[in-house]
Amino acid sequence: MENSANCTLLLDELKQNCHVLSDFIPFRASQVPNKTALRQFNRAEDKWEDFSYLWLKDNIHRWQKALVATGLKRGDRVGILLGNSPMP
Q1: 1 pLDDT higher than 60
Q2: Whole-model pTM?
Q3: With CB atoms 3.0 to 4.6 Å apart as the test, which of 3, 5, 12, 51 could cross-link to 38 if both were Cys?
Q4: 36 in Cβ contact with 50 (< 8 Å)
C-alpha cells in the first residue's frame, strides 16, 4: 500500500511540474539526480551500464548547445541518425 501511495504522490508531482515532455528530464534530474534514467548493455565489457538523470540532462543540454551553435532556431526541424546507444 505504501508503494502505491508513493507512486500516486510522484504522479501528482509530475503532473504539476511537467507540462510537456521536455520538462520531465530536468525535473527528475533536480529531484533524483543520481537515480538511473537509462540502462545499456555494454557488449564489449559484457555488463550493464547505468546512466543517471543528471547525466542525461547534461548530455541533452550539450546537444542543445551544439545544435544552437549551428544556427538552428526554435521551430527548425532536424534529422539525427545515430547508433542505438546513449553513449556520446
Answers
A1: no
A2: 0.74
A3: 51
A4: yes
pLDDT at 86: 64
For 34, phi then psi, to 5°, come to -100, 0
Residues in the chain: 88
Cα–Cα distance, 67 to 73 (Å, whole number): 9
**Per-residue buried b or exposed e for 11-43, using 16+ beta carbons within 10 Å of the residue's own CB:** eeeeeeeeeeeeeebbbbbeeeeeeebeeeeee
CA distance 80 to 9: 36
Which amino acid makes up residue 66?
A
- Residues 6+ positions from 38 with CB-CB distance below 8 Å: 50, 51, 56, 86
Nearest to 32 by CA among 40, 44, 24: 24
Q: Give the Cα separation of 70 and 51 in Å (integer).
A: 27
Question: What span, in angstroms and rounded, lies between the C-alpha atoms of 75 and 73?
Answer: 6
